[in-house]
Amino acid sequence: MTEIFEAIKESAKQIKSIIELGDSSKSDSSNSTGDTQLKLDIASDIVIEEIFGKISSVKQIVSEEKDEIFTINPEGKYLIAYDPLDGSSLVDVNLSVGTIYGIYENEFNGKNLKASAYIVYGPNVDLVFCDGTASKLYRLRNNEFVFLKDLKLQNTGLFVATGSTQQCWYPHHKKMVDDMFESGYKLRYSGGMVPDLHQILVKGGGLFSYPGASDKPKGKLRQLFEVFPFALVFECAGGGAIDGQERVLNVPTTHIHDTSPCFFGSLKELEFVKQAYNG
Ligand code: AHG
């Protein structure tokens, strides 16, 4: 796992340099779900593929930008699912973006997730690595990642971040969000899950959701690349992640690009979700 952590750090430094070049233009290609890729998406994907392609403990890698799983070393132990540049459409407006990693064993599903990591490229470059027991925050200083602290959620927080198109929300979701605002929660939503979730983790509590809705009953966010890695980080920080009722890491994966409704937060806010989604 040490060499994987080192590879994550190296990829973060290289992707930071690519973002700083400032090219937020579109490429001529689209990804597996039909989104037009930015040149940044493709360049970040190549960085990770090249770095992880040299690690013997890695059996397979799969990118959110691709349809296929690539085998690196058939004898390797770990399976890596990664989103090279989540929220890349926010680069041109100069909002924060991120990279997400899920580190699995045996096969790609939530129960086999052993570790996860994400990087936020903002005014600082922050890296959170979760080994399945603790979620540790590092910050890039003089080209090295320096440990800052373990992330720990309080029982409750101040913020609500909720995605999707409100017109398509189910009534019980709308009522839950309205009730939370009426009881004093503040809205925080940038449109990038990495900074939005990072804010809740660093500020110590709250709720992020990307619900199922009438246009997308299974939500938008992908299990292997986005939902499961953050679920582990939240659980190890003393919070949790559910699909509305159940622990989201128990939701089965049948295809690498499966999505799932998801709710990440501190324990009190997850109780609100369970009550709202009960039945
Ligand atoms: P993309 O990488 O295609 O820009 O998508 C970003 C993701 C995620 O980071 C964010 O939480 C969500 O899409 C926002 O979606 P909505 O605009 O539908 O709320």
CATH superfamily of the largest domain: Fructose-1,6-Bisphosphatase, subunit A, domain 1
Count every helix, treating DSSP H or I runs of 4 or more residues as helices: 6
The topology string of helices and strands comes to HEEHEEEEEEEEEHEHEHEEH
Net shape: globular
Structural class: alpha+beta
CATH topology name of the largest domain, in short, is Fructose-1,6-Bisphosphatase, Chain A, domain 1
Estimate the helix proportion, in percent: 25-40%
Total individual domains? 2
Task: Give the names of the bound compounds.
Answer: 2,5-anhydro-1,6-di-O-phosphono-D-glucitol
Describe the structure.
The chain is of the alpha+beta class and 279 residues long. It folds into two domains: 149 residues, Fructose-1,6-Bisphosphatase, subunit A, domain 1 (Fructose-1,6-Bisphosphatase, Chain A, domain 1, 2-Layer Sandwich); 119 residues, D-Maltodextrin-Binding Protein, domain 2. Helices cover 29% and strands 29% of the residues. It contains six helices and 15 strands. It has an eight-stranded mixed β-sheet with strand order 4-3-5-6-7-8-9-10, with helices on both faces. It has a five-stranded mixed β-sheet with strand order 12-11-13-15-14, sandwiched between helices. Strand 11, helix 3 and strand 12 form a beta-alpha-beta unit. Helix 1 runs antiparallel to helix 2 and helix 3 packs antiparallel against helix 6. The model has no long low-confidence stretch (mean pLDDT 94). The chain binds 2,5-anhydro-1,6-di-O-phosphono-D-glucitol (AHG). 2,5-anhydro-1,6-di-O-phosphono-D-glucitol binds next to loops.
